[in-house]
Amino acid sequence: MASKAKSRWADDEADAALDAQLKKEKEEKKRLRAEKARKLEAERQAREAAAAAASSAADAQQHERDGTDRGSPAKRRKLSPERETVPPTDSAPKLLRFEGGTFGRSRSVENYDKLNDIEEGAYGWVSRAKEMATGNVVALKRLKRDPKDLGGMPVTALREIQILKDCDHRNVVKLKEVVVGDDTTKIDSIFLVLEFLEHDLKSILEDMPEPFLASEVKTLLQQLASGVSYLHEHWILHRDLKTSNILLNNRGRLKIADFGMARYVGDPPPALTQLVVTLWYRAPELLLGATRYDSAIDMWSVGCIFGELLTGKPLLTGNNEVGQIAATFELCGVPTDESWPGFRRLPNARRMSLPPSTSTKNTTGALIRAKFPLLTSAGAALLAGLLSLDPVQRPTAREMLDHEYFRQDPKPKQEALFPTFPSKAGQEQRRRRETPNAPVRGQRAADLGAVDFSGIFSGREKEERGGGFTLRMV
């Protein structure tokens, strides 16, 4: 029988050599992987042994400090004196001891019984409530959240919580805790538990038949400046100071509230949004588009509040940005390169048409004296400084506290002698006031375009202003 013919697809010697080579490479890779795994296991065991040794050493030191007997441990070097053996003298070394905080679950808002609504603000709803366990009355602020915003908790809320937790001053409202609704899956049920104060300055000014006395104005301004000074010294800009955000209790204590637009800043300050501060209290550099500003914007707002305390009405009430600029220039004068160097470089000032500098000879101080004839010279000087168009010329809050105005008669009234007022917040919802709201985060800044202010002082050419009166020449 003939033998079977060999297939032409049969492996030859070259194929056999290639198979052998591939098998050898495969075995070498397998060996390398096994060796690498052994090294990793050895390193892991070494780390566990080192951790165990360190833990044992720490336990030995702890037992040694506790006085327990664990054989004869190595004698350790004494780094600090024992409290029992060193007498409490001034020369004894002192140790820094820091109490470490812990994270825990927030309490439920159901621990508070809502009494009545107070007011709706730009960044939350405020209600009066009572803690059921203690009976203490508090203010509950429910934080607003845009349903279309998928980014989680608003950054304004995070900033407000952080700043309120960091602040501890008699003229800044105190945050007691943050509570949540029962449904913890929804982040729109977050409440700030704040101390409750009976009034806000805006409601008091609207209901008073006559403005505050001079001594009472000084008391309020001193407390306001003290709180603002604390904020600025801790690198905090409030950025929405106004009478409705300033609270007052029935014992004459003033506190700054509503930190929804506040934020920390550095030196030099970073580029910030110009859409801050309610329109009637907004500084001129913000109106003209400045994005780099500092604590001077808060001091301008303090000046507006000063004027409002004197008259009982808001000082500058523009309907929009252009109207607000016009009202500001009417009261404080038209800026020039001498009174406000570099203001022409601001975005909204480049295309403004202003009257010639010779059309008015009134400085800010003279205009303030004409507007407030009953104010003393020191008071007029302080108000004119706060309402200076040039931010550099405005006094700081600390300088304001040292001003001569507070040392003159009548002296500031003691808080205990301050008049009391019926509390609307304790009984009913505050009525909606016809005042502008704070800017909304993400809103576009207004483009003023070409604005003509050349006729802002028309008709004043015949006026000659003096201290405390106006004389019209006929």
UniProtKB/TrEMBL annotation:
<keyword id="KW-0808">Transferase</keyword>
<keyword id="KW-0547">Nucleotide-binding</keyword>
<dbReference type="GO" id="GO:0005634">
    <property type="term" value="C:nucleus"/>
</dbReference>
<protein>
    <recommendedName>
        <fullName>cyclin-dependent kinase</fullName>
        <ecNumber>2.7.11.22</ecNumber>
    </recommendedName>
</protein>
<dbReference type="GO" id="GO:0007346">
    <property type="term" value="P:regulation of mitotic cell cycle"/>
</dbReference>
<dbReference type="InterPro" id="IPR011009">
    <property type="entry name" value="Kinase-like_dom_sf"/>
</dbReference>
<dbReference type="InterPro" id="IPR050108">
    <property type="entry name" value="CDK"/>
</dbReference>
<feature type="domain" description="Protein kinase">
    <location>
        <begin position="112"/>
        <end position="406"/>
    </location>
</feature>
<dbReference type="InterPro" id="IPR008271">
    <property type="entry name" value="Ser/Thr_kinase_AS"/>
</dbReference>
<dbReference type="Pfam" id="PF00069">
    <property type="entry name" value="Pkinase"/>
</dbReference>
<dbReference type="GO" id="GO:0005524">
    <property type="term" value="F:ATP binding"/>
</dbReference>
<keyword id="KW-0067">ATP-binding</keyword>
<keyword id="KW-0418">Kinase</keyword>
<dbReference type="GO" id="GO:0004693">
    <property type="term" value="F:cyclin-dependent protein serine/threonine kinase activity"/>
</dbReference>
<keyword id="KW-0723">Serine/threonine-protein kinase</keyword>
<dbReference type="InterPro" id="IPR000719">
    <property type="entry name" value="Prot_kinase_dom"/>
</dbReference>
<feature type="compositionally biased region" description="Basic and acidic residues">
    <location>
        <begin position="21"/>
        <end position="47"/>
    </location>
</feature>
<feature type="region of interest" description="Disordered">
    <location>
        <begin position="408"/>
        <end position="445"/>
    </location>
</feature>
<feature type="region of interest" description="Disordered">
    <location>
        <begin position="21"/>
        <end position="98"/>
    </location>
</feature>
<comment type="similarity">
    <text>Belongs to the protein kinase superfamily. CMGC Ser/Thr protein kinase family. CDC2/CDKX subfamily.</text>
</comment>
<feature type="compositionally biased region" description="Low complexity">
    <location>
        <begin position="48"/>
        <end position="60"/>
    </location>
</feature>
